[in-house]
Each structure stands twice: as C-alpha cells, then as structure tokens.
Amino acid sequence: MIHSNAFDYINVLQKTADAAWIRNDVIANNIANATTPGYKRQDVAFEDELSKALGHSRYKSMDDKVADLKINRLSPRTYTDSAGYSYRMDGNNVDIETENVTLASNQLKYNGLINCLNQEFKNLQTVIKMK
C-alpha cells in the first residue's frame, strides 16, 4: 500500500467537525434544561486538546505536525462546566442568552468546518482529474 498524507487535514477537520456536532447537542441539552432545578450546564472540551497536540513541536511545519498527529487519541470530552457555581436559587447554572449565543457561534464554526472539508475533497478531485 502506498503511504500518503493526502487525508491528514481531512481527518483533523472531520474530528473537529464531530466535536462541534457533539457540542451542538450538548448546548441544545443545556437550553432544554434551562429551567430544570439543580441542572448544571455542560460543554465539550476538544480545541485545547487539539492545540496541545499540534503545538508539541515548535520547529515543525504545520504539515508535519498534522502528519504526526495521533488522531485516534483526540476525542471530544463532555464535562460539567462550573459545577459549584449557580446564580439561581434552584441550583441551575444555565444562562439561556449565553447558551443561544454559544449555539450560534458553534453552528458558524461547524458550517465553516464543513466548507473546509468540501474544499479539501474538491482539491483531491482536481488532483485526480489531472492524472
């Protein structure tokens, strides 16, 4: 089999889009539970983990960093955000306005990631047609 790095960026974009999709579900769950007593908002940790994985070597090009990335070790992790914090008497810490803004931001990010994935596949198609 021929070893190629043609899908390295696609794999990273896919993993990041998956994390954004999961975050979308988590935010929707936060919004649905905005009035549930004792509910604590949740979020998804992924970007910091990806940044650390890519930043492990300062003297490599981004292509080399992406090629060396252990993509299977990167996984979005859902966590309870500010579990000890509540600004309401019922123990709920969901701010509906913040959740709506976060949801809109996450949807824009997801759409951008999908556009990038589509462009990467178009680039591959162009290369294949040239051969």
Radius of gyration, in angstroms, nearest whole number: 19 Å
Number of domains: 1
Spatial shape: elongated
Distance between the termini: 19 Å
Helix-strand category:
mainly alpha
Largest sheet report: 2 strands, antiparallel
SSE order in H/E notation? HEHHEH
> Considering DSSP H and I runs of 4 or more, what fraction of the residues is helical?
55-70%
Mean pLDDT: 86
Q: How would you write the strand order of the largest sheet?
A: 1-2
Please work out how many helical segments DSSP would assign.
Answer: 4
Low-confidence stretches: none
Number of DSSP E strands: 2
The portion of residues forming beta strands comes to: 5-15%
Question: Can you give a write-up of this model?
Answer:
By secondary structure, this protein is mostly helical. It has one domain (8-130). The chain is built from four helices and two strands, in the order αβααβα. It has helices spanning 8-32, 47-54, 62-68, 96-130, and strands at residues 42-45, 77-80. The chain has a two-stranded antiparallel ribbon. Helix 1 runs antiparallel to helix 4. The longest helix is centred in the last third of the chain and has 35 residues, at 96-130. It is elongated.
